[in-house]
Automatic annotation (TrEMBL):
Residues 9-184 form the Formyl transferase N-terminal domain. PANTHER family: METHIONYL-TRNA FORMYLTRANSFERASE, METHIONYL-TRNA FORMYLTRANSFERASE, MITOCHONDRIAL. Residues 209-312 form the Formyl transferase C-terminal domain. Keywords: Protein biosynthesis, Transferase. Its EC number is 2.1.2.9. InterPro entries: Fmt (IPR005794), Formyl_trans_C (IPR005793), Formyl_transf_N (IPR002376), Formyl_transf_N_sf (IPR036477), Formyl_transferase-like_C_sf (IPR011034), Met-tRNA-FMT_C (IPR044135), Met-tRNA-FMT_N (IPR041711). This is Methionyl-tRNA formyltransferase. It is an enzyme of class 2 (transferase). It comes from Marinicrinis sediminis.
Length: 325
């Protein structure tokens, strides 16, 4: 790797755990990070304890100055006062104003968790899993006024494994993004990058997740429901209802055809429990059966289906319902 240019001043902008490896990588590689911009501290948990974002905690560990504007568009001059030659962002969470993007001599770049132009937007990891994709990756691009529309600098692809959920894929892509950033920066700062425009006709969008994205519609196919559960774990969690209360589903599996032969699923209604035993809880779907393995009834902690059934719980022949109010 080319030795970092000590004269290039970098401002890093990011918020969640996904961005932390990028910041740490810059510091450990010897780049001159002159400041970090992140979201304000937010209340967290049931007790609503004011909690700093992970990037702030990492920045303070390196004794870096931290800015936490509520709205970057009204505070961009504070960032420009740091005199950055390059702005690096990773899951910052706000759109940067053009007046900020245009000032650094090397521009502003973003580490995005998808193979652009697929899944522009806030939740690319969740949508890739939810849509049953076999591959995703990381793209580094120049930032511009549009939402993840800038010219692409570098990409790395990664398979989505059958046992991946949003949490495991988040960790893999976070590490891959940091590695790609460190591979790309020397050439970028040396002016050796030829960026490639995105094809807007191929663009798809991963909008912010809504409550309805978490709801399990048992009319859907088993594989679609299984991928939805994976996409919503470990946050915010997919859900159904039982006796009018919310009922979260954290882990599922697709049963083998030989296993399904032992269950009377073809005569059951969608959402009906057709088996409940040590192998899990089998629920009728639009095209077959999905087995629930880890769940969370209303007012309870996350648990295995076996633990739930030991306390009686839902029985064969009962049915999960629709949206909790």
């Amino acid at each position: 790797m080319t030795k970092p240019n000590a004269g290039d001043r970098i401002v890093f902008m990011g918020t969640p755990d996904f961005a932390v490896p990028c910041l740490k990588g810059l510091m450990e590689a010897g780049y001159q990070v002159v400041g970090v911009v992140t979201q304000p501290d937010r209340p967290k948990g049931r007790k609503r304890v004011l909690t700093p974002p992970p990037v702030k905690e990492a920045a303070l560990a390196y004794h870096l100055p931290v800015l936490q504007p509520e709205k970057i568009r009204t505070a961009y001059e504070e960032v420009l006062a740091l005199e950055p030659d390059l702005i690096v962002t990773a899951a910052y969470g706000q759109i940067l104003p053009v007046s900020l993007l245009e000032q650094p001599k090397h521009g502003a770049i973003n580490v995005h968790a998808s193979l652009l132009p697929a899944y522009r937007g806030a939740a690319p990891i969740q949508y890739a899993i939810m849509n049953g994709d076999e591959e995703t990756g990381v793209t580094i691009m120049y930032m511009e006024q549009g939402l993840d529309t800038g010219d692409m600098i570098a990409k790395v692809a990664m398979p989505i494994q059958a046992d991946d959920d949003a949490g495991t894929l988040f960790d893999k892509l976070s590490a891959a993004g940091a590695s790609l950033l460190l591979e790309t920066l020397p050439r970028l700062l040396a002016g050796e990058i030829t960026a490639v425009p995105q094809n807007d006709e191929d663009a798809t969008y991963a909008r912010t997740l809504k409550r309805d994205d978490e709801r399990l519609d048992w009319e859907r196919k088993s594989k679609q429901l299984h991928d939805q559960v994976r996409a919503m774990s470990p946050w915010p969690g997919a859900f159904t209802t039982y006796q009018g209360d919310g009922f979260k589903v954290w882990k599922t599996r697709m049963p083998a055809a030989s296993e399904m032969e032992n269950w009377p699923w073809q005569q059951a209604q969608v959402g009906e429990v057709v088996a409940a035993s040590a192998v899990g809880m089998a629920v009728r779907t639009g095209d077959g059966v999905l087995v629930l393995e880890e769940i969370q009834p209303a007012g309870k902690k996350r648990m295995t289906v076996q633990a739930y059934l030991a306390g009686k719980g839902i029985q064969v022949g009962e049915r999960f319902g629709g949206v909790a109010e």
